Amino acid sequence: MLKTFFRTYRRGIRRLQARSKGIYSYGDEQILIARYIKDLKIESRLCVDIAASDGRTMSNTYFLFQQGWGGLAVEYDAHQFARLAQAYRSFPKVNLAKCKVTPPNVVSLLQANQVPANFGFLNLDIDGYDYFVLEQILKEFRPALICVEVNEKIPPPVKFTVKWDPDYCWKENHFYGQSLSQLCSLCPVFGYSLIELYYNNAFLAPSETKAFPVLTPEAAYQKGYLNQPDRKERFPWNADMEPLLNLPPEEAVAFINRFFSDRKGQFICSV
User: Fold this and answer.
1) pTM exceeding the 0.70 threshold for the entire prediction
2) Which residue in 136, 197, 203, 208 could disulfide with 220, CB within 3.0 to 4.6 Å?
3) Cα distance between the two ends of the chain
């Protein structure tokens, strides 16, 4: 218990120190995003943040809005949305929406807020059926850079995703989101490339940009999560899923099916 307390305390101190330097993201995501925006020569200064929380804590977009970007920030939780609205009072170019984002409503939500088809940056982190929301977005929109959370504990080549269910609610456990390989199955369909995995955040860019080497899920996972020296410190709650990382693909699928046996029918898992 004491180790957990002090680990959490140290992470909190690091976040406060980072914020004092103008860093709001959990890790270095903000720095990576700024670099990608520059290197990709993104001209649209408009971003969409789905599941924006309070707008500042562990935010990948707050620094862009500080720089005068416009866009849309969406949050469903009433308490977090109240804090978001307070924090964004000085951002007149940013529309706020308090709603639950779903595959059926996400396109109309963006369109109702005048988000153009080609906009600068999409940040997606809803801890659930993210795959199906992103799939719908990419049918109508083409952001120049995408940052989307993945379920980092599920390695390639396993394809895993929570199914779309209007009653789904994350229980703050391992059952959420999509694996990196599942996310990458969207890339050839919509012309995107995986350019980096940073722990549990995957970065995608339109394939035609050719500004960065295209990574396979396996290569990105090795560098961005598996071989990160501090991943166990950053994700101590993943300890009970560690055996999954050393299993052959078919055995990994069987492990996941057993692990989530109480959620049978609520997820897709295959190789």
Assistant:
1) yes
2) 197
3) 37
Rg over CA atoms, the chain = 18
Q: How many CB atoms lie within 10 A of CB 45?
A: 17
Query: 49: which 2 tokens?
Result: 């943040």
Give residues with Cβ within 8 angstroms of 100, minimum separation 6: 76
Alpha-carbon distance of 23 to 52, in angstroms, equals 16
Separation of alpha carbons 151 and 212, rounded Å: 24
CA 231/CA 110 separation, integer angstroms: 35
The one-letter code for the residue type at 222 is Q
Q: Which CATH superfamily is domain 9-270 in?
A: Vaccinia Virus protein VP39 (3.40.50.150)
Please name which of 260, 240, 261, 243 lies closest in space to residue 252, comparing C-alpha atoms: 243
pLDDT per residue as tens digits for the range 203-218 = 999 999 988 999 999 9
> What is 51-104 written as a DSSP string?
S-TTSSTT-SSHHHHHTT-EEEEE---HHHHHHHHHHTTT-TTEEEE-S---TT
φ/ψ of 43, rounded to 5, equals: -95, -30
Residues 63-120: pLDDT tens digits?
999 999 999 999 999 999 999 999 999 999 999 999 999 999 999 999 999 999 999 9
